[in-house]
Design brief:
Layout: E1 2-5, E2 11-16, H1 22-31, H2 34-41, H3 50-56, E3 65-70, E4 77-85, E5 92-99, H4 108-122, E6 127-133, H5 137-145, E7 149-154, E8 157-163
Parallel strand pairs: 5-6
Antiparallel strand pairs: 1-2, 2-3, 3-4, 4-5, 6-8, 7-8
């Protein structure tokens, strides 16, 4: 468990997400505003299904990682940053970050993304990707602060990438 101090001085605890967090994760996503859930999942999502929860908690803390930020005053999880492998692309992972509505705009997502990038590097991941809706300007700004750059657009979706390992010069 690591302490995370936000720019306003608030201290949170960050730890790997665990299977026993299943109910708390389900409840936290249900508490998100409909707009936040839409921006995170790129579709209306009134609640997580059993399959969604299974997928989100399918973590080995190497190729698939998720970090949860917890408010020590309440014990409530308030943000999750995760990566999972991109199918068919070895050592490339997709990133997703979710921050509770009341905690958005406080650089929590930016800091968790930076910590997730550290984990990915340590695990030998060479590139991270993230997909955002074009209208999700806050997520795009968070990704830019993390070093991601837009690489493609498909309709309403923008794909971003961060190269973690540079190819060696010949």
């Amino acid at each position: 468990m690591r302490k995370l101090t936000l720019p306003d001085g608030t201290v949170l605890l960050v730890r790997p997400l665990q299977p026993e967090d299943r109910q708390r994760l389900d409840e936290a996503v249900a508490k998100l505003s409909p707009q936040s859930r839409y921006l995170r999942f790129a579709a209306p999502k009134p609640r997580l299904t059993k399959a969604d929860l299974d997928r989100l908690l399918d973590l080995d803390h190497h190729a698939r990682e998720a970090l949860v930020a917890v408010d020590p005053a309440t014990g409530e999880g308030i943000a999750v940053a995760r990566y999972a492998p991109v199918t068919g692309q070895p050592h490339v992972a997709e990133v997703a970050v979710t921050v509770a509505d009341a905690w958005q705009g406080r650089r929590l997502g930016t800091t968790l993304t930076a910590w997730l990038i550290e984990r990915a590097r340590a695990e030998g991941i060479v590139a991270l990707r993230a997909n955002t809706l074009a209208e999700n300007v806050r997520a795009q700004a968070m990704l830019r602060r993390g070093g991601f750059r837009p690489i493609a657009r498909d309709g309403a979706m923008i794909e971003h990438e961060l190269t973690l390992v540079q190819a060696e010069a010949a």
